[in-house]
Amino acid sequence: MMGDAIVTLLDVDKFFGANHVIKKLNLTVQQGEFLTLLGPSGCGKTTILRMIAGFEDASAGSIEVQGERVEDKEAFERDVNTVFQSYALFPHMTVFDNIAYGLTVKRVPKQEIKERVKEMLALVQLEGFEGRRPDMMSGGQKQRVAIARALINNPKVLLLDEPLGALDLKLRKQMQLELKRLQKKLNITFIYVTHDQEEAMTMSDRIAVINNGILEQIDTPKEIYKHPKTRFVADFIGESNILEGQVLDCQDGLCRIQLETGMVLLQSPNRKPADPVMICVRPEVMKYERSPVDGFSLPGTIKDIIFVGAQYRTLIVLENGMEIKVNRVKPEKDLKEGDSVYLYWEPEDALGIGDLKQGGSVNEQQ
Amino acid sequence: MNSSDTVKINSRLTKRRHFKRNTAPALAMAGPVTFWMLFFVLLPLLYVIFISFMSRDLYGGIAFEFTTENYTNMLKPVYLNVIWQSIKLAFFTTLICLLIGYPFAYYIARKPSKVAAKLLMLIMIPFWTNSLVRLYSLGLLAAPKGFINIVLQKLGLISEPLQMLHTNGIVVVGLLISMLPFAVLPLYASIEKLDKSYLEASSDLGARPAVTFWKVTVPLTLPGIVASIILVFIPSLGMYYVPETLGGGKIMLIGNLIRNQFLVTRNWPFGASLSILLILITLFMLWFYTRVARLDELEVF
């Protein structure tokens, strides 16, 4: 599915006044992939998108689309199209005129415009809505019009700026799958901006996690979840318990780690004694027993067992006051709130943040 | 009596109590305005309509004999010419106001609001001086031995003083000076509300800036454009003191004609019918405005 690079950002910097919002960003987007820029609000992900679209100039560095530098091209000269966060449908035009706009301004013959708009309406399942005005439509319908309008020019890259943000949860889930289907069908590169990690997980071929204008990690959703490279990624993607400690000794890649309030095991190929280490343990792999398990001695007290629908969530407080989240489909029968327990996990389930991938290859970064 | 009846009666009772409680303050607030509109607008207007159908008596008073002559009189070439001249001057004033006002309003609207407020202030400041003083100063500047002619002569650009006073040109300039803020303010209001993402979307879809301007910016600011046309065009028709101070009595517009009917030739019925004509033109333009505004569901005022 992935071929050549279609969008390349090289050492891109962006300042707004004295604000350094994008810092030496290097990013390669592959032909035909669904790439998500994921990060908290204000992290610079929308700015990246706007620089690719041509609405903002990069302060330094270069941006290439299909091997061609585009910094000197205006937005209307670039072969990329955007689906805006607020849709930005022209309120004085009908659905037909909105979708046709990209062709109208290129003076495409009327008959051809008609056919193409019809195709687009079929693609987004809005046949029969030609004569409506945007203010007579629901959020989901406007969304589809915005997508159709952006796709009619056959862009090489479609940029989507939090396009589902204004929709309710159910519609959002449905549109996620539809967007994914559309992207597969048209084989267009999608660059998608969102702050919703679940959305990113559902749709993306690859996710680029952005924080504070820095690319923290770019990889497949699975790799990002399983092997977060930084503390921020571990924290932002999914839920995690992050424990800080120091390596005591290692044997065949199995290390004993000294934490503030106990001792744990971590499978890690590249650690030396006395190295500081951050361990990320997802709530679903965290376990606990009444008595210590081989190699572990991390005591805590059960604070709460909460039923959250699909599973039970147990909160366990360590001796230093830190709260550990544990998710279970069923609660351990004989344990209740206030009981003292010992935490442990299968050493291969926990991750040392910044560890090499299993298999040894280093992720591309910065 | 079943319970639903009770509910109905109760709700009727509360409604009545509600009404009483709310009518008094409503009347207190709307009353003065209603009184004002009734006695100072509606009744005088009806009286103007009434005398516009009466005749003039020998001594310049009103003879209460019905006639439509005051309206058919307007069709005489001499009056048609005045109406035509007025519309022409008002049209050019409006056009130039738009051509100057739109770019200016656009420029202000794209500035941060603090800067915008200061720039708007700048066009308001001249309006704190009396408009007659401003017009007479313009007349002094444009006089045969005025500042402009002297400078041009000293520079050797002209040998004879230009005849600027008492021309249509100077009257249009006078009207422009008087009307420009009325053009800029509604334009500013509607351009300022224009969401930048529409312009970005247009550019994104491949439209050059000029195309974006005609296809997106102008239609979306149309209510502002029409509002400023109305606010400039209508007063320009009736501002009789501008042609009087700058036109030297040589330029006769509807406003001057009406004034003369009442104060000089003392033909009140004809003056009244001309006033009605102005009102009709105004109403027509307002109707036109509401149509345009409704079309886009965008409000300016």
Structure description:
The complex is a heterodimer of chains A (366) and B (301). Chain A has 366 residues and is α+β, with helices and mostly antiparallel strands. Chain A is built from 8 helices and 20 strands. Chain A has helices at residues 45-53, 95-104, 110-123, 139-151, 169-186, 197-203, 221-226, 231-236, and strands at residues 5-16, 19-30, 34-38, 60-65, 68-69, 80-83, 157-161, 189-194, 206-211, 214-219, 241-251, 254-259, 263-267, 276-281, 287-289, 298-307, 312-318, 323-328, 340-344, 351-352. A 6-stranded mixed β-sheet of chain A has the order 6-7-8-3-9-10, with helices on both faces. A 5-stranded antiparallel β-sheet of chain A has the order 13-12-11-14-20. Chain B is mainly alpha-helical. Chain B folds into 2 domains: 3-52; 73-296, MetI-like fold (Orthogonal Bundle). Chain B contains 13 helices and 2 strands, in the order αββαααααααααααα. In chain B, strand 1 and strand 2 (62-63) form a beta hairpin. In chain B, helix 3 crosses helix 10 (222-238), helix 7 (168-193) runs antiparallel to helix 10 (222-238) and helix 7 crosses helix 11. Chain B is globular, with a radius of gyration of 26 Å. Residues 296-301 of chain B have low confidence and may be disordered. Chain A binds chain B through residues 53-55, 74-76, 80-82, 84, 86, 88-92, 101-102, 105-106, 135, 149-150, 153, and chain B through 195, 197-198, 200-209, 211, 215-216, 219-220, 295-298.
